[in-house]
């Protein structure tokens, strides 16, 4: 599904990714853990096609196809989804208008017919109920006045509707209390499928109690420095990142 | 105004002088109106066309922008093409003014029972006191020029207590390269209610100049919604002025949408004459290419306990220049006034510009006044959020710009007019998107 080889990326003069190698096979959930500043969020933005990063070396293959020159909207239509660490509030854009625009734009890009309004409404209703996203939230402008938990639920709602092949979850647990974490994790777990890969980026192990990964990678100073099973997360929780920060320095 | 005697006249000023000299005896009106015209033209000649050293016209230097002046509409037989109706589908009565002349046979005055429509020419002949009544405090060369040369237009009278069922559009249409000077007079009695859409359109490619002055007097406890659509032809110059006084406990909601003309200036002067009146004043500008659009707002809180809300939004593309000047005056005795003005510019291109000049002059001590001005580009984070969901860039920008303008358009609080104006904004954005794709 996703193959990253020797990926180097910088912002301005600052080199952030320094040779990332990562393979996420179809249907697997991989976690990336690492200290602050190790390049985790940059990796998520580079994968989803955000402007402002210079890819100086390496390749990103998605479904076997190089995507470095593909704009963000085309990557989305191809099946890459980023759940934001800080979902944006967009005053004046109604949540439903946004959802419909996103869904239909992706369908159009894939050569599929646009959804009829009743079909769209039905899909939103089904997905929203599972995530405790209320009709009142859906009536508001996108994320405006939403609590941290509501914003994260809205991210997972979008993921459920857009049905990506690869979901990148960037610090999805940040700002969530334990109840909200459970709702969000249940939502994510419900979307696990043999056809879908996930890349779960997190600083803390606790999210991985809920979304149990197949593989855990440790990122430090812009590289993957260690990979292992779910037990690696527990080891990090016990010992911290100190050894990795020193190793990288 | 500039105190120095002016010696050099521009070609445009010379033409205007020649036009006035030739037209003065044919212009309609009583002897008193004729002397008012002479006085107004003398006042105009003394200062000439506004230029950048005139503070109120700082960003719109008409001396430089008006290279020439087309012939007056007067006595010219014009049979141009009437452009498409931009408000099609919006239910309203229509007063149609073509090339400065009220055309009853093209108008639709149904559904406005209780209101009286009279050609302004009749008021000029009858030396009606309402002509010029709202302009006393306005020292403006363009208004003087209008007084000197005014011909067409209409007077709308809504008597006390009457609610006019349908909105009334005053449709100003210009079909040829002429100079048009229109004067409208609107009087809304106490406890009456009226919705007005003042529209301005004209032929594509026609270098006409429209100077329209409207004087409105709104009685106590009346409720008036007044929307203006400036969608003039692409080669035209639009100079529009609305001078309005609002009485005790009135509610006056006003929106100006500016999208047409090559050079445009829209002036709104609101004077609070009765206490506890509320004014909502909104503006939405959408321009591109080399367009220049200036909105000037003057709010005079002459009495206590008035409330005004000002929110102006401008979107500039290409090499366009957007301007907003807002001046709020709170007179010495006007205590407990509450005025808040916000203006925001959104630049869609590197070469566009936005200038904002908010001014507060507060002479009373127990008031609440605030103003803010911002100018910036589309927020990168918001744009990326939409792109990351698969929404193409042009569509994402359209969503964000629509949301930006909606705050001003919805501020008017009139759903039908809001929907009609949002549709016009949508067309502008769609045209922009298709140009970008081409």
Automatic annotation (TrEMBL), chain A:
Pfam families assigned to the protein according to its UniProt record, in alphabetical order: ABC_tran (PF00005)
CDD domains tied to this protein: ABC_FeS_Assembly
Highest taxon above the source species: Bacteria
Every ABC transporter domain range: 2-246
SUPFAM superfamilies with a match to the protein in the record: P-loop containing nucleoside triphosphate hydrolases
GO molecular function: ATP binding
This protein's UniProt keywords: ATP-binding, Nucleotide-binding
InterPro entries: AAA+_ATPase, ABC_transporter-like_ATP-bd, ABC_transporter-like_CS, FeS-cluster_ATPase_SufC, P-loop_NTPase
Family: Belongs to the ABC transporter superfamily. Ycf16 family.
Protein name: Fe-S cluster assembly ATP-binding protein
Source organism (scientific name): Kaistia dalseonensis
From TrEMBL, chain B:
Domain SUF system FeS cluster assembly SufBD core stretches: 177-404
SUPFAM superfamilies: Stabilizer of iron transporter SufD (SSF101960)
InterPro entries: Fe-S_cluster_assembly_SufBD, SUF_FeS_clus_asmbl_SufBD_core, SUF_FeS_clus_asmbl_SufBD_sf, SUF_FeS_clus_asmbl_SufD, SufBD_N
Superkingdom classification of source: Bacteria
Domain SUF system FeS cluster assembly SufBD N-terminal positions: 30-66
Record PANTHER family: PROTEIN ABCI7, CHLOROPLASTIC (PTHR43575)
Family indicated by similarity: Belongs to the iron-sulfur cluster assembly SufBD family.
Protein name (database record): Fe-S cluster assembly protein SufD
Organism: Kaistia dalseonensis
């Amino acid at each position: 599904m996703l193959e990253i080889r020797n990926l180097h990326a910088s912002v301005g003069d600052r080199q952030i990714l320094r040779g990332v190698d990562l393979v996420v096979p179809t249907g697997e959930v991989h976690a990336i853990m690492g200290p602050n500043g190790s390049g985790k969020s940059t990796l998520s933005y580079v994968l989803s096609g955000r402007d402002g990063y210079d890819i100086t070396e390496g390749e990103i293959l998605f479904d076997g196809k190089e995507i470095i020159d593909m704009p963000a909207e085309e990557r989305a239509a191809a099946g890459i989804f980023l759940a934001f660490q800080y979902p944006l509030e967009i005053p004046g854009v109604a949540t439903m208008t946004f959802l419909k625009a996103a869904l239909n734009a992706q369908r159009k890009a894939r050569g599929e017919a646009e959804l009829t309004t009743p079909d769209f409404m039905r899909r939103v209703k089904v997905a929203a109920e599972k995530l405790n996203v209320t009709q009142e939230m859906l009536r508001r402008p996108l994320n405006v006045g939403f609590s941290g938990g509501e914003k994260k639920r809205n991210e997972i709602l979008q993921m459920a509707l857009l049905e990506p092949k690869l979901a990148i979850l960037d610090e999805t647990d940040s700002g969530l209390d334990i109840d909200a974490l459970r709702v969000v994790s249940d939502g994510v777990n419900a979307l696990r499928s043999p056809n879908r890969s996930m890349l779960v980026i997190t600083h803390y192990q606790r999210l991985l109690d809920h979304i149990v990964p197949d593989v855990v990678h440790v990122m430090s100073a812009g590289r993957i420095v260690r990979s292992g099973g779910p037990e690696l997360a527990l080891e990090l929780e016990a010992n911290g990142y100190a050894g990795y920060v020193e190793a990288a320095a | 105004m500039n105190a120095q005697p002016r010696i050099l006249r521009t070609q445009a000023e010379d033409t205007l002088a020649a036009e006035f000299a030739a037209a003065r005896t044919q212009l309609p009106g009583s002897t008193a109106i004729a002397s008012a015209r002479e006085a107004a033209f003398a006042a105009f000649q003394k200062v000439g066309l506004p230029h950048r050293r005139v503070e109120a016209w700082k960003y719109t230097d008409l001396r430089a922008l008006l290279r020439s002046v087309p012939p007056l509409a007067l006595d010219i037989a014009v049979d141009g093409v009437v452009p498409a109706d931009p408000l099609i589908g919006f239910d309203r009565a229509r007063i149609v003014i073509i090339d400065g002349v009220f055309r009853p046979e093209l108008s639709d005055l149904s559904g406005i029972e209780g209101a009286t429509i009279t050609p302004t020419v009749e008021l000029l002949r009858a030396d009606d006191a309402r002509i010029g009544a709202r302009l006393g405090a306005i020292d403006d060369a363009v208004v003087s020029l209008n007084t000197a040369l005014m011909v067409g237009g209409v007077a709308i009278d809504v008597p006390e207590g009457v609610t006019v069922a349908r909105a009334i559009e005053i449709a100003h249409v210009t079909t040829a390269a002429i100079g048009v000077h229109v004067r409208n007079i609107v009087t809304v009695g106490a406890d009456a209610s009226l919705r007005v859409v003042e529209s301005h359109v004209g032929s594509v490619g026609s270098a006409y100049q429209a100077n329209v002055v409207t004087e409105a007097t709104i009685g106590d406890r009346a409720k008036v919604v007044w929307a203006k659509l400036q969608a003039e032809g692409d080669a035209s110059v639009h100079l529009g002025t609305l001078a309005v006084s609002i009485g005790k406990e009135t509610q006056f909601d006003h929106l100006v949408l500016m999208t047409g003309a090559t050079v445009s200036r829209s002036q709104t002067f609101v004077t609070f004459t009765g206490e506890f009146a509320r004014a909502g004043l909104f503006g939405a500008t959408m321009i591109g290419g080399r367009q220049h659009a200036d909105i000037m707002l003057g709010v005079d809180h002459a009495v206590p306990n008035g409330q005004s809300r000002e929110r102006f939004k401008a979107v500039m593309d290409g090499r366009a220049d957007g301007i907003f000047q807002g001046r709020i005056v709170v007179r010495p005795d006007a205590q407990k006034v509450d005025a808040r003005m916000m203006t925001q510019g959104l630049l869609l291109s590197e070469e566009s510009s936005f200038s904002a000049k908010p001014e507060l002059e507060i002479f009373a001590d127990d008031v609440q006044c605030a103003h803010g001005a911002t100018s910036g580009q589309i927020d990168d984070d918001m744009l990326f959020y939409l792109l990351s969901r698969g929404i193409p860039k042009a569509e994402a920008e359209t969503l964000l710009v629509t949301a930006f303008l909606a705050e001003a358009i919805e501020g008017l609080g009139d759903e039908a007019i809001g929907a009609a104006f949002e549709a016009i904004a949508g067309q502008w954005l769609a045209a922009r998107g298709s140009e970008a794709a081409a």
